[in-house]
Design a protein that fits this description.
- 2 copies of one chain form a homodimer.
- The first copy, chain A, has 1 helix and 8 strands.
- By secondary structure, chain A is mostly beta strands.
- In chain A, strand 1 and strand 2 (about 20-25) form a beta hairpin.
- Chains A and B meet through strand 3, strand 5 and strand 8 of A and strand 3, strand 5 and strand 8 of B.
């Protein structure tokens, strides 16, 4: 079975802890009533990770070598077989197809995969 | 950019609310120390959804037509552009590459995409 993701938007970093999530026009009907939520789960593709990063299955927590090595499924490490980031953000405001959010730990330009109510 | 997911395991339904998550041997090193967690986020591919389901951008909450229509990004509806299910489960036990879990609302045979600590 092919499991191919479609980008529904993109991350734009602003100052400090604030980001914009721009949802592409074709998907913007999916945002109806999102403004009634205070918190949302954002799924994004960690596009800077390499094929080698997808092969990593164990790591030290936060890269701290004094801590015992763990499997990536027991870690929040970005290195994992499917580089999907999952972050609960605070929704500050919505302006048409743009969400202004706080707390999104995604790099500029990361593709947005999904948004779910938290 | 191509965003292609790799199945790391599969869902096997047991009685009542109990499921097994079988992680494929090649990915089983990723499970090290997972047994120290009581709860985990499971990401799975909702493989029964069709291409038409991926085009749905608005729906009534829980299919209840007495409730106002919302965007799928404000809903837990399985119909959405990227059919990734996200469920917080309770880890009951781990036996080598098999996790026994409670509360996973995924169909038999659903591909597992990722596991993250909750």
């Amino acid at each position: 079975m092919e499991m191919v993701l479609r980008p529904v938007g993109i991350v734009i970093k602003k100052q400090d802890d604030i980001s914009e999530i721009e949802i592409y026009q074709e998907y913007s009907p999916g945002l109806k009533s999102v403004e009634n939520r205070t918190h949302l789960w954002i799924m994004f593709w960690m596009s800077r990770l390499s094929e080698a990063d997808r092969k990593v299955l164990q790591a030290h927590p936060m890269g701290d070598r004094s801590k015992e090595i763990r499997g990536v499924f027991a870690l929040r490490s970005p290195m994992r077989p499917n580089p999907i980031g999952l972050t609960k953000i605070e929704l500050i405001s919505k302006n048409e197809n743009i969400l202004i959010v706080s707390g999104l730990d995604a790099f500029e330009g990361s593709p947005i995969i999904d948004i779910k109510p938290a």
